[in-house]
Amino acid sequence: MKLQALIFDMDGVITDTIKLHDRAWAQLALEENVPYTRAESDAIRGLSREDSILHIFRHRSLDDSTIQTMMARKNHYFLDYLQEMTPADVLPGVRRLIEEARAEGWKVGLASSSRNVEDVLAKLDIRQSFDAIADAYTVARTKPAPDVFLWTAGRLGISPHEALILEDSSAGVEAALTGGFFVVGLGDPALVGAAHHVLPNLGDAHLAELLQAITA
Questions:
Q1: H or E segment at 94?
Q2: What is the extent of the structural domain holding 53?
Q3: Which is catalytic among the residues 11, 22, 147, 168?
């Protein structure tokens, strides 16, 4: 095995935008008189905005115009909350792993289902750390389809089996595995047995230890 690239998901991996998304979804659900619970939050993690709408409001019949309006409202709330974010909100371990990957001559990518990648990276002042960035605008199919990872790997000039993915959602892990990548799952114990290795977070993670874990 000769890995040559590290590819990050964004939400929940690079930074904790999950809490901002949850606030935005909760606000929309409250206005629409629909419950939004922890279970709902977990179920939509890693999904596109439209797929999240279809899940949260699955008991309603929604036409395309209504879906588009709801998506715009939710995104407006999220962007308002995003103004609170600073470079200090990059999660522990992320910058260190990027530095370790660079020291090994690896390329570094980011592959997310979000439509707000550029806004988030600007607030974190970390965009320059990535050689390739893919988001929901880049590919036709988002996670759990592997397209966003495959596109990123192609942009980096490497094959799927040459990249290690860092993901926190079941949809993202499924996408990585379907695409033929190695994947480390983060946070969710349910990812054990799916991802090649699972950690609670990247706080104490080092690249050499990740490589050892996925080949054990």
A1: helix 94-103
A2: 18-82
A3: 11
